[in-house]
Amino acid sequence: MDAVNRSRLWSKVKLAKPTRQQQEARIGLLFLAPWLIGFVLLKALPILAALVLSLTDFRMLSPETTKFVGLENYVRFFQDAQAGANLLGSLNYFLLTVPLEMVVALVLAAIFTSERLKNKRFSQTLIFMTSIIPATSVFFIFLGSIQYADRLIFTPLGLPPIQGFGLLLPFMTLWSIGPGFLIIYSAMVSVPKEIYEAARVDGAGLFARFFHITLPMISPAIFFTLVINLTGAFGGAVLLDRGYILSFSLSPMEGYINETMFRETELGYASALAWVTFTVMMTLTLLLFRSAKRWVYFPEEDELNEI
After folding, report:
1. pLDDT, tens digit (0-9, with 9 covering 90-100), for 189-217
2. How many domains does the chain have?
3. Which candidate, 17, 177, 241, 284, has a CA 20 to 30 Å from the CA of 3?
4. Distances (CA, A) of 165 to 19, 169, 235
5. Does 201 map to a domain?
6. pLDDT in tens, 36-67
7. Which domain holds residue 258?
8. Domain-embedded: residue 229
């Protein structure tokens, strides 16, 4: 009788249906599951493994001789003049290329938001295609074109040859301008036109509207692009999928890490260099976030303050 009564009671129990928010949360987690699994397996675990390897003298050609050395690799970094020079070179690369890329992206975005410009879709596709075409192919095409120009034009005329590598840095920087341009352009398009019309009525000119309306309104997009470019300058070419070959990088520090890892086969020291670079990059990123309160405009915060 007890078993029968229990079965009757269980049959009368109605399971509570999940709320709409719970259903949406489950669906969201379902869509995020492939990315989360990939992040854990392909990003988080390798990063933690690199931290463990940085505390050893692991060599790729002789893994059986691996020993725990503690912080010896990090002490070696402070004694390695070449590593410090490459780290400063990556910082200089960031300071030189990022302003150039940001200025060009802002100018192009301002041009494409103009109502007078025609065939915007086609031109936007051409600009973004530069980020899809592998940068390695462009690199060799660029150097080959310079060599032919030297042989056919400059050498017969007795002129000095073109310094190809001097032109390579700004050329490759502008070649990968597509993502930054797209982010800033999308931000400019989303600025309400009523603000520009009110500024025109008040007598604000083109440059006044750009510096006092456009730049403050798109400052979150500029900040996001700045952080992404910081990652690329300190060795995020693989992360950003810029199309560079493994042994080549415009970031000096990333190139030095690749050389230490694959040419010298010192994976332990290369892991320590990667963690030092990661620490410096995260420090600069945190400083950018601290400075964002002074120059980045977040309209959501103003709405919350009004409430």
Report:
1. 888 888 888 888 888 888 888 888 889 99
2. 1
3. 17
4. 61, 7, 20
5. yes
6. 898 888 888 888 888 999 999 998 888 888 89
7. 74-299
8. yes
